[in-house]
Amino acid sequence: MIKRIHSGGEYEKKVGYCRAVVANGFVFVAGTCAQGDEIPSDIVGQCKSSLDAIGKALAEAGAGFKDVVRVNYYLPDMSEFKLCWPLLQGAFGENPPAATVVECNLITPEDRIEIEVTAVLPE
């Protein structure tokens, strides 16, 4: 069985994807930038917003940050990444996932970070 989780974000319909897909015991959360009506301009605010959206998708799937086994971070400016470390430590804590960080362009020039995770559903 496959379950698709939609957040209602503007790009889901424009691009043709959903926030997360639950399949075969895994939760695949799409790359997530800051969400909402008022997007923070700074990377810390955007990281927090992204983590909040990911947390909601994981919860709807029946999982949490402790179940994340893989995370990918995408940033247009790698020098800003260290500002996010306290938030990431807070999210993953004692259950750190395997991680990759890539410096690249994001969907809009205003985006400072995009986060993508894969989690395992708890038994």
From TrEMBL:
InterPro entries assigned to the protein according to its UniProt record, in alphabetical order: RutC-like_sf (IPR035959), YjgF/YER057c/UK114 (IPR006175)
Protein name: RidA family protein
SUPFAM superfamilies: YjgF-like
Top-level taxonomy: Bacteria, Pseudomonadati, Pseudomonadota, Alphaproteobacteria, Rhodobacterales
Coiled-coil region(s): none
